[in-house]
Amino acid sequence: MRIDSHVHITPPDISANWEKYAGNEPYFSLISGSKVNKFASAEDVITMLDDNNLDKAVVFAFAFRDPGLCRYVNDYVIEKVKEFPQRLVGFAVTPPGNESGKEINRCFCAGLKGVGELFPQGQEFNPENKKETEAITGVCKELDIPLLLHVNENVGHSYPGKTDISLKQVEAFVTNNPDLKIILAHFGGGLLFYETMKEIRKSFVNVYYDISGAPFLYDYRIYNMINALGICDRILFASDFPILSPSRYFNDLEKSNLTENEKQLIFGKNAERLFKI
Ligand SMILES: [Zn+2]
After folding, report:
1. What's the gap in Å between 150 CA and the centre of ligand 1?
2. How confident is the model over 216-267, as pLDDT tens digits?
3. Cα(6) to centroid of ligand 1, in Å?
4. Half-sphere exposure at residue 234, Cβ-oriented, CA atoms within 13 angstroms
């Protein structure tokens, strides 16, 4: 099975009137107003899957600061997963807070299989602070579902939405939650390079990395490094559609020294195991 593990969907009424929702949501405003931004409906994702010879997509809506807006967009994800059960796997979004456990449980009971992509800076929480995040991490552990966290590089070119959250903060989030299945987006902002450190390797056994954003960030040798690090069993194919199409990744993956077996892990087997699909 070929799975895209990082796809954003937006209810059509928000896509059409995004400015209306941007007033109290600075991070949403920044991302939505950027030149590279695009919105996709669930139906657009089905077309994308067919065009790219993919079986399933993990879809989620924008993670707002406002829990009410999160509930609203989660309802859209729930509805579309029910409509396309063979093609879409849904994740829930929520800011950390008193209501987040209840919302994650509601979404889980309605068929969603994870939480994310959460934005620490955009949703104004510090991943290092156990107290701030435990309302979410606790429920994810209880339900045994993964949590997808946005992480960007602390170096290199800047782009809209690139934040100051440090790799040190993300490391603390991982070590604070040894039993939680964590997906670090965008190669964990480069945190995966530290997998050669003994203590990182040891505390990151439940950490997965997705490759979303690769064409903007790295050349094909990033995949050779994954191979050299021996972590192909914790890497997920992920496009960040609609900002990037899956087809943008295929050439570099082909050019790399990954074996057919390793590519199969990355393209689907890891996701099947992690999402229990
Ligand atoms: Zn992201």
Report:
1. 4
2. 999 999 999 999 999 999 999 999 999 999 999 999 999 999 999 999 999 9
3. 9
4. 21
220-195-143-115 Cα dihedral, nearest 10 degrees: -40
Ligand 1 center to residue 103 CA distance, Å? 21
Q: What's the domain range around 124?
A: 3-275
Q: Nearest CA to 58 among 10, 116, 7, 109?
A: 7
CA of 187 to the centre of ligand 1 (A): 10
CA dihedral 183, 245, 1, 178 (to 10 degrees): 0
For residue 118, report the distance from its CA to the centre of ligand 1, in Å.
8
User: How many domains does the chain contain in total?
Assistant: 1
Q: Where does residue 205 rank: exposed (0-12), middle (13-18), buried (19+ CB within 10 A)?
A: exposed
Return the CATH number at 238: 3.20.20.140
How many alpha carbons fall within 13 Å on the CB side of residue 1?
A: 19
Q: What residues contact 143, with CB distance under 8 A and at least 6 apart?
A: 104, 105, 108
pTM: 0.97
